[in-house]
Design goal:
The complex is a heterodimer of chains A (238) and B (485). Chain A is α/β, with parallel strands linked by helices and 238 residues long. Chain A is built from nine helices and six strands; from the N terminus they run E-H-H-E-E-H-H-H-E-H-E-H-E-H-H. Classes of the chains: A alpha/beta (238), B alpha+beta (485). Chain A: GO terms for molecular function: zinc ion binding.
């Protein structure tokens, strides 16, 4: 087993759950959560200039690659923020906005709508990770961060477990950040446990609590996690 | 002692040492711009970065013990060491067992991440009329390459010794940096290259630029310039975008002078007709992108250059395609016609023939030994060949044939076979116990180089000889005192 070295670059794939009915039920507002995610992404990019990033937006019917994407970004006249951060932030925010505006839902309150299928997004994430590993000459350590507000969809259990085992085989860590109040997502808990990642629940809507939690637990790469403890989860409902 | 050449590591340690030695009010000034905080953040170790990020959005201070509890049990000491390092850099303050981030640093790093604060520290873009023709990236690349190669050719050209002054000497600021960095020294026929200069030539462009910036910082310190302003400007330079016009308006006089001097190296381009406008070239912007050109080479050929976080790696990569083919019989074929690259190859390769786009030669014992005697190490030759290897060779693992790399190392070891040491040789001891006593004493003080107990002969170092003479004299005095009494 190759041990992580301090200066190895990382690859982070952020999977954002863009399901409006799920977010309507969450204690956290989507726009605030997005702002904090964007700051977290900037912090990740600041760690190491060689770090790579992929952002995927997952809604009920579609799974889109938000960054790096070919969509054009209009050049702002004044530079408000470090240019590298700005490109990423603008693409992610405009991508999520586009996805939300395309969602047309008949019955927004039905049980079916609250479920967000994650297996599609996870498979897409794993494909991107595999492709980047092929391109890269050195060793790169990959992990996935899932920000989810919806509930589990029972019919996708098998496909989800398949992607989890594939991630485990590729030694990809999967961190889960759940923003849906009281209910736990059993499948995603297993994902975090099997691959060695963290499972977090964000209940309070206090400013920047999501950001602080993410910075504290999910920012660390493989090497740092071997040095610094991660908060463990006590009970997993297998 | 070999002068350890500037690379990213040395730059980091120098900046770290410098920040540690700053008094408190100066460090507040350095931390007052988001660009500086971001650059300093990137310089510290990975664990240190994690500690800072964990504390960044906590407004209260934490107990030191709690922070140490974050670490796993077998890494506790390492984490304590990192916290101590952060304290020395004045990023973390400790107060009665509570640690918290330096408030100025914390505020500005938050600004760097969220885009608030004084965003001009990342460079103010140039607004205004003037010429319509905007400088293109290709123009910038050409300008930078011409200036940088002129400096390198100046360094190599003098080595011929034939006195030909075909090479234009660069500006005085460049020459003074070369002189103070001990890359060249003043000789009879102008400036001559030193051993460190040879090593500098074989490094990749990024390390060379780091060396120049580091030397500039040292020179600023010696000239009593305000180092804080120089540092701030360096940090700002490293985070500029390629191909964008920046205004020199908000810069201070010292920083504007720096701009003029760095222009001679090809690091920035200043428009003559609009002196307030400057562009950063790829030599500077690639410092903040991926450190090895191999990564960017491979990903660029697949056309997916948008994947890495910095979009300006492509121009640097396209100008550093490999061109050397090395065969297992030590023959070299270099597909280049640039006189600079041919001159650098000529340092350690015996060049045989030259065509319009190709130079052939061989690595012979004499050519490599000549390079070794001038101070180049075998590792540097191997790294240089690997970094500039033709893409066809790079598909092999390892890139260079093992026979050739081993042979270069063997040639280097040949020079290390004999170590002369000044010593004294003792023989013809009259009695065995005399010899034993002297041998034991010499072994106790650790100066024995060789001893033969059967032949009663001993070789000791020069310093040891003095002590043994004292011992023998004192014993002779003691024994003559006993016999006489």
């Amino acid at each position: 087993m190759v041990e992580p070295v301090e200066s190895d670059p990382s690859l982070l794939v952020v999977v954002l759950d863009v399901n409006p009915s799920a977010w309507a039920r969450s204690p956290l507002a989507l726009d605030k959560a997005l702002q904090q995610i964007v700051i977290f992404i900037n912090a990740y990019l600041a760690l190491n200039p060689e770090n790579k990033l992929v952002v995927i937006g997952a809604s009920k019917r579609k799974c889109l690659l938000l960054y790096p994407s070919d969509s054009t970004v209009d050049a702002a006249q004044d530079i408000q923020v470090y240019e590298q951060f700005r490109l990423v932030d603008v693409k992610v925010l405009s991508g999520v906005q586009a996805m939300m505006s395309q969602v047309t839902v008949d019955n927004i309150n039905s049980l079916d709508e609250r479920q967000s299928p994650m297996s599609r997004a996870l498979s897409m994430a794993l494909c991107h990770i595999h492709r980047i590993n092929e391109d890269q000459t050195g060793k790169i350590w990959s992990r996935i961060l899932v920000l989810s507000a919806g509930e589990d969809a029972p019919r996708e259990y098998i496909s989800l477990m398949n992607s989890i085992f594939a991630a485990q085989k590729m030694s990809v860590l999967v961190d889960i950040c759940k923003a849906c109040g009281q209910k736990d997502s059993v499948f995603l808990q297993q994902a975090a446990d099997i691959t060695g990642g963290n499972y977090l629940k964000v209940n309070s809507a206090a400013d920047e609590s999501l950001l602080q939690t993410l910075m504290f637990t999910c920012l660390a790469d493989h090497y740092t996690r071997s040095v610094i403890n991660a908060p463990g989860s006590a009970l997993i409902d297998f | 002692m070999a002068h350890q050449l500037g690379s990213e590591e040395e730059f980091k340690t120098t900046i770290a040492d410098y920040l540690e030695s700053l008094p408190a009010q100066f460090s507040q000034r350095v931390f007052s711009s988001p660009a500086a905080c971001l650059a300093i953040f990137r310089l510290i170790s990975t664990v240190g970065k994690q500690l800072i990020m964990s504390m960044l959005y906590l407004d209260t201070s934490l107990r030191l013990q709690d922070v140490c509890q974050w670490a796993r049990t077998d890494s506790q000491r390492m984490v304590r060491g990192k916290i101590h390092q952060l304290r020395k850099l004045q990023l973390v303050t400790e107060d009665h067992g509570n640690v918290s981030l330096n408030p100025v640093f914390r505020a500005q790093l938050r600004n760097a991440l969220t885009g608030g604060g004084d965003f001009s520290s990342f460079g103010t873009p140039f607004k205004g009329g003037g010429r319509d023709t905007r400088i293109t990236k290709a123009q910038l690349a050409r300008y930078a390459d011409v200036k940088w190669e002129a400096m390198l050719r100046f360094m190599v050209g003098r080595q011929d010794g034939s006195g030909e002054s075909v090479v234009q000497p660069p500006a005085e600021s460049v020459r003074s940096i070369l002189r103070t960095a001990k890359l060249m020294e003043d000789g009879e026929n102008g400036m001559a290259i030193t051993n460190s200069g040879f090593q500098f030539l074989l490094q990749d462009t990024q390390s060379q630029v780091w060396t120049v910036l580091l030397q500039y910082l040292r020179q600023a310190e010696m000239q009593q310039m305000d180092v804080v302003e120089v540092l701030n400007f360096l940090f700002q330079l490293v985070s500029l975008q390629l191909g964008r016009a920046y205004s020199a308006e908000p810069l201070t006089t010292i920083q504007r002078r720096m701009l003029g001097e760095l222009r001679d190296f090809g690091l920035v381009l200043q428009d003559d007709q609009r002196p307030m406008c400057f562009y950063a070239t790829h030599l500077v912007t690639m410092l903040s992108s991926s450190s090895s050109t191999e990564n960017s080479d491979k990903s660029d050929t697949k056309g997916s250059k948008a994947l890495s976080a910095s979009p300006q790696g492509e121009l640097a990569a396209s100008s550093s395609q490999g061109y050397i083919i090395l065969e297992t019989n030590c023959r070299i074929y270099a597909y280049t016609d640039s006189p600079l690259q041919i001159a650098i190859l000529g340092l350690f390769v015996h060049l045989v023939s030259r065509f319009s786009n190709l130079v052939t030669g061989a690595l012979t014992r004499d050519s490599v030994r000549q390079a070794l005697s001038q101070g180049i190490t075998a590792d540097q030759i191997i790294t240089f060949l690997t970094a500039n290897a033709h893409p066809q060779m790079q598909s092999h693992v390892p890139v260079l044939p093992v026979t050739v790399t081993d042979q270069i190392r063997l040639w280097e070891q040949e020079r290390n076979r004999l170590h002369p040491t000044q010593a004294h040789f003792y023989k013809d001891f009259a009695q065995k116990q005399d010899f034993d006593r002297v041998l034991r004493y010499a072994q106790d003080i650790g100066v024995v180089l060789w001893a033969s107990i059967e032949k009663r002969q001993l070789v000791v170092t020069r310093q040891g000889h003095v002590k043994i003479v004292e011992l023998v004299n004192s014993q002779r005095a003691a024994s003559s005192a006993t016999t006489s009494s």
